[in-house]
Structures are given as structure tokens and as C-alpha cells.
Amino acid sequence: MKKIIVLLGLSFMFSLVSNAQILNIEQFRLEKDTSNVWYGNVSLGFSARKQGSEIRKIQGVGNLIYLSKKHSYMSLNRYSLLQVNDNSVISEGYGHTRINFNRTKKVSFEQFNQYQYDIARKLNHRILTGMTIRFRLISKDKNRLSANTGFMYENENWQISDTTTFDNISIKSTSNINFRTTLHKKVIFYCIAYYQAKPESFFKPRVTVDASLQFLFTEKFSFNTSFVSTYDEAYIIPIAELIYNFKSTISYTF
């Protein structure tokens, strides 16, 4: 119990507001023979301190997965808010849904939708919808390797100034390769790399690498730590091309 309390404290100390634009879907994907079952996990973090100003941070995560006989359905959600006194300094989050049709096949199709906002980066919203083909390259108990490729529709709204916004609509290719391995019966490593670009500027992509470690306390509780780095050559407004973050959370799975 003392170890859990220590790790929970560390998760609040090191948790950063995420600037990641792409999700590590493989961390939530289930490839089981069972069907008509539900899985999910939730985590909630809160911290507060007073040092001249009152600083409060709230972060909530909720994920739900349903496996039918042929398909899988995923809903992934995370939202966070950082306040200084009564002012919202950073507010960001996403909601993501995904369907994997014929999930047990070596070649299957996926349809996904996402709504995202990141006020600190002046992104009022990003709306995605797309379809990919998924290839299961390796599917063993300890090691899994797969790749996706397809296209997506992207609608962004950026805050240029206090009174001016800019809408950007585009069609992009989206591809990823992902790997999962069990390092120990209680330690799992996930890694996914994305390459997204407009067809007419294919060599000016958005590239994201997401690596995560999951430490299982019990069947229900786990400690998760991840590092995400994104490089984008085609930002609409002049902001940093390279962003990254490190975060840690404790999750309850049901």
C-alpha cells in the first residue's frame, strides 16, 4: 500500500499537460477470443497548491471498449484543466471513437473519429474522421506488431488573435506502425509511430512517436508512464515545430 501511495504522489509531481495530437491506440486495443464483453479504465488526478497564487490542476481519463463476435468498438476520452486563481490557464482534451471491423482477421478495416482542443496552443478544435486498413503482422502472446494506412478528413480552427480565427480543412494520408511486447508478466511496453501528411506535400508530415510502459499492480490497478514527441512541418500558425511531453498516471481497469 505504501508503494502505491508513493507512486500516486510521483504521478502528480511528474504529470504534465499533454500536447500530444495522436493517441497510442495500441495501449487500449484488445485482441481476445472472447466476445460480447466490455472493458474500460478510469483515472482522476487533482493537485492544488498556494504560493502567492492558487494553482489547481484537474485531469480525468475514461476509456471504454466493447468486443462483439466480429468487431471491436472503442471510446477514449481525456480532459485536463489548469487554473491559476480563478482563471483557466490551460484547458485541453480529446474524445476519440474507433471501430475495428472483422477484428480477428489479419487484414481488417478501421473507422475513427476524434474531437480535440488545446487552448494553450491556440487550437480551438480539431475534428478528424477517417478510414484505414489494418495489417496484423505478428500476433503472439508476448509480441504484437501491426500497421495501418489510410486517409482522413481534418478540420482545424486556430485562434490567430483575440478576435480572429482561422479554419483549415484538408485531406491527409495517415499511416502508423505499432508494437507491443510483454517485458515481464507485470510490465508491458507499447510503441506507436505515426506519419500524416497531405498528398501534395507528402514530405512535410506530422510525425509522432509515442512510447509507454505499463506496470501492473493487480488485475485492476496499473501505473502508466509515457513519452510522446510530435514534429509538424505544416503548422497553420507560428508555433514550435517540435513538442513533447512526459506523463504518469495510475489507472483502474474494470
Outline the fold blueprint.
Blueprint: H1 2-14, E1 37-51, E2 53-67, E3 72-84, E4 87-101, E5 107-118, E6 123-139, E7 143-159, E8 165-184, E9 187-197, E10 206-216, E11 221-232, E12 242-253
Antiparallel strand pairs: 1-2, 1-12, 2-3, 3-4, 4-5, 5-6, 6-7, 7-8, 8-9, 9-10, 10-11, 11-12
Can you walk me through this structure?
With 254 residues, the protein is mainly beta. Strands 1-2-3-4-5-6-7-8-9-10-11-12 form a twelve-stranded antiparallel beta barrel. The protein has one helix spanning 2-14; strands at 37-51, 53-67, 72-84, 87-101, 107-118, 123-139, 143-159, 165-184, 187-197, 206-216, 221-232, 242-253. The two termini are 20 Å apart.
**Estimated helix fraction:** under 10%
Structural class: mainly beta
On the 0 to 100 scale, the average pLDDT is 80
Largest sheet: 12 strands, antiparallel, barrel
Q: Trace the largest sheet across and list its strands.
A: 1-2-3-4-5-6-7-8-9-10-11-12
Count all strands and give the number. Answer: 12
Shape: globular
Order of helices and strands: HEEEEEEEEEEEE
- Which ranges are low-confidence, i.e. pLDDT below 50, for 5 or more consecutive residues? 1-22
Number of helices: 1
Radius of gyration: 19 Å
The proportion of strand residues reads over 45%
Report how far apart the termini are.
20 Å
